[in-house]
Specification:
CATH topology: Purple Acid Phosphatase, chain A, domain 2
Number of domains: 1
Helix content: 25-40%
Structural class: alpha/beta
Number of helices: 6
Amino acid sequence: MIFFTSDTHFNDPRILRIDRRPFPDLASHDEALVAVWNEVVSHDDEVWHLGDVARGTPAFKDELLARLNGRKHLVIGNNDDDATVQSRHWRSVQAYAEIVVDEARLVLCHYAFRTWNQMGKGSVNLHGHSHGRLKPLPRQYDVGVDAFPFRPVSLSEILASRGRRAERSGPPR
């Protein structure tokens, strides 16, 4: 299975204040996100993390990523430093990606686009960065943990999040 997420902001004390995440402290936040990730994602699943993974030392980030299930791909966010980008736990690292999942063409970036490749032919833009606060365009979805319940989500969950209208848009031609 393939999952998507963004803006986990592990070990980032700003996240509790700025986004008012419902955790009493940063340690509780981080442990809850690790636990729910591992409940959803198996070791054989793939996860596309669309940026803003964590703050901390290279050792902290390597230990954290080792604890998270799945084969992980990083689409770099504005808060991802060299220690994050260079971790040996990523299968791939890029600033932008285009992939096909279940016959749907996906354009992945940390940032939401105003327009994107194959937009007029049904492609879907998955992004993070806006923490669930940005009004999306059609076929555009924020996959961050603030937009979904603090966990990675599948494409079918993402598309179903807007009900029947999203399902009718169908795969690209």
